[in-house]
# Entry
Amino acid sequence: MAGTGKRGDAKKPSIWKEDYFGKRGFKKKGIKRIIKGINISEVDQQIEKWADSKLAKREKDFFMVDLQKLGYNKLLGDGKATKKMQIKVGIASPKAAEKIKAAGGEVVSADKE
# Structure
């Protein structure tokens, strides 16, 4: 019961509520990477519009698109691919690559070229 006597109701410093004691959390040093991803379902819906506006190429029933030119750097595996596509992207999740290959297409890493 220390401090409950004569000056018990005096205001005590509350430095613990503020960010007083140094840094918090973990921060990766170096380059900050911003990942902008797109799902397979969105690519599948947009691919014909992109082909009409010359953002993607169409060869018979095969579509070729460079997602990095469209502002995306990661292909995510949500959805289903219904068209044959060759997608050029920086990063692709393993699930996305499997789904594109199952539909008869391929995923090409933009870093390799």
